[in-house]
Each structure stands twice: as C-alpha cells, then as structure tokens.
Amino acid sequence: MHQCDIPPGTGRADRFPYTSFSEWLDPEPLDELMEVLEEAVDDPEGQRQMMRAYANQHPAVFEVARWLLWHGEDPASAIYLLSSLGTERAVVELKRFALGQAGEDEERMRAAKELNDQGQFPEGQPVRLWHKGEWRDLLLKTFAITDEPEEIEYRPEVRRLLGEAAVAAQEKRLDQPEAMCHRILEQDPGCRMADTVLANICSHRGDTPGMARQFEKALEIDPDYATARCGLALLYLEAGKVEEAEEFIAPLLGRQKFARSELIAYNVAMARIQLHRGNVEAVEAALDVLFELAPDDPLVLQLEQTLGGHREKG
Q: Is 251 a member of any domain?
C-alpha cells in the first residue's frame, strides 16, 4: 500500500496487531533504499543525504523507524534508519530512547553511540545512561578497527615468520621465536612487531628490564604504536607509578582507529589503570569492548575476576 493510502485511525498501536508496518511504505523503493545505504556504509554524510531525499518522497519512513524502535522486533534497524535520517525529529526520538530505560542495554548504547558520533553530546563528557540496572555516567567512545600492521606493512616471508614466532612465544617455546625475531630484524630493522614479540618473550622469562627495552625499541620505530605504548604503561603501573602510566597512555585517549591487537592492548591497559583508581564504571566499559574482541582471552577473564573481587571488597 502506498503511504498516501494509509487509512486514518490508531491501527498502528500494539492493540491493533492486524496492521503491519510493512503496509506503510512501498516495499520496492524501501528495498532499493536499503541497498543504496549499504553501498554507502563508509560515507555517513552520504547516507544521511540519501535518507533525507527518500524521506521527502516517503514521509512515512520516520513513522516506520519510530514504530520499529519502540514496538518492533528489530530496534537495531530502527536506530540505523533514524541515524541515517539525521533530522531533528529523528535525533529527538533517538535521544528519548538512548537516555531512557526502554529496550536492552546494548540497544540503548548503540543509539547513544550513534548520537555521539553525530556530535549530539558534549565531546569528552560522560553521558548519563541506564546501564546494567542503574543510572551511570558513561564515556561514549567508538573505534574503527583497521588492518593489522603485519598485514599491510611486511613482506610475505616476514609475515610468516612473525606468525610462527608469535604462536611459539604464546606456547612458551621461547628460544625458537627469539631466533626468528632476530632473523626478521636482520631483514627488516623497522619491524616493530618483532620487537613486541621479543618483549613478550622477556615477559615469560620474568625479564622486566628486557621487556621495557623491546617496547622502547618498538616505539622508536613508531611512537604511535599502541601495543608498545600500552605495554610500557602497564610496566609503570606494576612499578606503582600510576601517574606515569596515565601520562604514557594519554596520547591514545583521543584516537579512534586501532588495529584489533592494539585495541585489545589499549583496553587492557585502561581497565588496569582505572581499576587501580577504583573507577569501576570505566573498567566495565573497557571490559565490554574486550569481551566483543576477545571473549575467551585468559587475560580478559582474569580482569573480570579481579573486578569482581574489587566489588566484593568495596
């Protein structure tokens, strides 16, 4: 049914289940719109322009999105539609949802992050959200995950050796990966990943000074390398130098693009530093990211247990 042919009345309410939202719009142009939006997934502004043009031709799209948000079974699609629409009414509806208690935590957080990405909340300021059964002041950060450095920077032979060395180091077969990393550095002295693997080997051996030296070498190659920066920050923290740890990680706070391994290292460091400060909400926010990226990582599970112990003591 064309949107102009929708009969008057309250048939869209839950108590009138015989009315389907699919009747509010022509399905063919709606399908076409979704295809176009998917093609422009990396161009948010382009998405909004297309969505607004579509909404001018099909005004009922806002009502569809609003109904899906509050009454439908697919709030994620509603949030996507309203965010792409980007009009004042759409923003108001998203804020009502994000800042309220309806829906699931994940859905409200998704809406809040979309609003944050559009600059609807003060930059760097916490937002009060209903989360995990209580009102909390949460910092909203979104990250773009890029390719791993070794996938784009190194030759195939170096990538192969790095992969084998990392696995061997994880399995604590330390002599073999150490030799591999030295071979890599002979071929490519600028391979920061090799220095990182050597730092992990030093960690397994209990060689803290050696670990620090390898991370420092990696940072000499690339001062923006988050894994090495976070590794050194944790060494400061373990030495009881909390302020130094915070200063060392500070250059990463405004960063939005990380490789997956870097984002894990960053959130592990943030969780440990904030746990030391007693900031439970910040630790939980970091753990939420970690459970998305590495739910079975022993380090992540250990952090969760440590947080549980901290709560019991508190």
A: yes
